[in-house]
Amino acid sequence: MKEIILAGGCFWGVEEYMSRIDGIVETRVGYANGMTHNPSYEDVCKRNTGHAEACIVRYDENIISLEELLNRFWKVIDPTSLNKQGGDVGHQYRTGIYYIDDADLPIIKKSIEEEQKKYNKKIVTEVEPLSCFYDAEEYHQQYLKKNPGGYCHIDLSSM
Question: Which of 22, 50, 52, 62 has the most CB atoms less than 10 A away?
Answer without folding.
Answer: 52
